[in-house]
Request: fold
Amino acid sequence: MNKPLFISLISVTLLSTNIYAESMYERFQTMQKELETLKQEVATLKEEKNSKSEMQKDADEESDAIIEIKSKNEESEEDDLEETLDFFDSRISKLNRATSGNRLKLGADYRFTLDNIKYTMADKSKAKNDALMTNRLWVNMFWKANNELSFHAQVAYQKAYGARSGASNPTSSSYENFDWITNENAYDGLMRLKNAYFFYQNDTFASLDIPWTFSIGRRPSTNGHLINFRDNDGASSPMAHTVNVEFDGLSSKFSLLKDWGTYVKFCAGRGMSNAAPKFSTTPYSETTDIPEIDLVGLIFVPFNNGHYSFNTQYYYANNLIDSISLTDQTQGFDTVGGLHSFTANIMIQGIGNEWSEFLDDSTLFISGAYTKTNPKNNKRMLYGAVDAGGATQTGESKTGYSYWIGTQFPSLISKDGKWGLEFNHGSQYFRSITYAEDTNIGSKVAVRGDAYEAYFTEYLVEKYLSMQIRYTYIDYDYTGSNGFFGETSGASYSIEDAINFGMGNIVVDKAQDIRFYIRYKY
Reply:
């Protein structure tokens, strides 16, 4: 075989393989797999040749001479092939070393959003924004040291177009850069760390055949399960019915039954650190201010076969806070108590058993949540001095519930698009920790009342450029859905009581958001 021609053919094969892979890292990996396949084929050809040579040892002298000549030609071609493969293997290795040791992966996720927002207050007054435009950019980074250890990071930017009026008002803007939501609101033009953590995985744990993982750092704890459908993202591990905030912590997952998809995952995190300022008399010592806010949780999935799944989640958060003053939020926080939360959901991905392509690509889910407060003896959590139930005593625990149903189905106008419908309801004292939910009018799953949503997502250029139109409508029955946990911002009054208490102009009765976005993701 002509060697230059052969090298050219191999070059085209390798460099054009999966040319639309998501990153250079994946292209390198694909090319290396192709090289290994070709090397294996060469080895197989050698084995076949040697086997044939053994069978023909007893051939006559003339045949032996012919076979010897042919064999030399074959060996020459095989040497050329091996030399070519070694050449490309060496070149790819050098290229990988020049790009962080063959382990680097970068991604960009940019989104332009236009929101039409309307509010109806309890006293029937109105507030609105006809055209809120925002930019959001996520830069994703991934480094893989080996098959067990990797590092993940994401930095984020989100800001309204131009300068935003009202952002300097201390009463309304003091929580704009709160750590739980620092990358989920259109605040300023700074690029911030959204998550950064290392991820370790192994197929055995303490000599047992139990695959497990361990991770610690700034957690990927937003866009969790179920809310990820309408956000058109892969799900992070928390169940977003009750947790959707940024926080720092650790997690460890243990896979128990492979056939059932059974696993258990332990999580722990810190939402606020009690530490004195750097330039104080005793830097970073504990203070008399807010103690640490910690959260511990357990995710247990007894069954998930990719078609049907049943998922559960429990957590307890301690030392939760409320603002001291509703009218002057610059005064700081007060510690009010803890919160128990339990969530369970059932999801069907592919309705029916090959009844139709439409149903096979449809998803249905039902989720329920229960919360119970654990207030300090002298504090009120989620209720005021006098509420609709007549509660006046401090230290009284409150329970709440919420349910959420939704479906996502194939687009009716394109091949790859997805459409969805969702509804959720929350009781008077339900409390989720979902402040980072990507809904500008406030978390819909935190609602004490009813929330309705419809959306459709369509792709404009393959899987890289997409657009979405989404409509969210929230009808509040009680106040405090998007507040903190005490009697100041989190108290749950009926809309009628809020009017009677003279709060009709500061309490939202109904809210809606019509959102359009264009998103580039690579």
Q: What stands out?
A: Residues 1-22 have pLDDT under 50 and may be disordered. The chain has two domains: 3-98, 219-276+295-521.
